[in-house]
Design goal:
Structural class: mainly beta
Order of helices and strands: HEEEEEEEEEEE
Number of helices: 1
Largest sheet: 3 strands, parallel
Number of strands: 11
Distance between the termini: 26 Å
Length: 103
């Protein structure tokens, strides 16, 4: 739903509110992302303050994603918390933690 809001800086709060309504943990004034952002489990994601996510990023999987303060994520980034083992295809997952002040 938030991807439908145009990428204008003044509309960033509306986009953040819509993402928060899906369960993501964030400060609505501290996140700016360009569409499109693909998130399959928004309730598993926590955004710090001063976070910028460039266009066409994907956050997927069963694990948690915790993004610190003042983080910038480039375009076309995939944060995948779930994988499978070769051979038996057993699903394995973990968490991703991005610390403060990371680009």
């Amino acid at each position: 739903m938030a991807n439908l809001v145009p990428d204008f800086f003044v509309l960033r709060i509306i986009k953040a509110v819509l993402l928060r309504c899906t369960g993501a943990k964030l400060n609505i004034f501290g996140l700016y992302f360009l569409s499109s952002l693909h998130v399959d489990r928004p309730w598993q994601i926590t955004f710090g303050k001063g976070v910028f996510v460039n266009r066409n990023c994907t956050f997927e999987g069963l694990g948690r994603v915790v993004i610190g303060n003042n983080v910038q994520i480039g375009p076309n980034v995939v944060l995948a918390t779930t994988n499978h083992q070769l051979g038996d295809m057993q699903v394995v997952s973990g968490d991703i933690h991005i610390l403060d002040n990371v680009w």
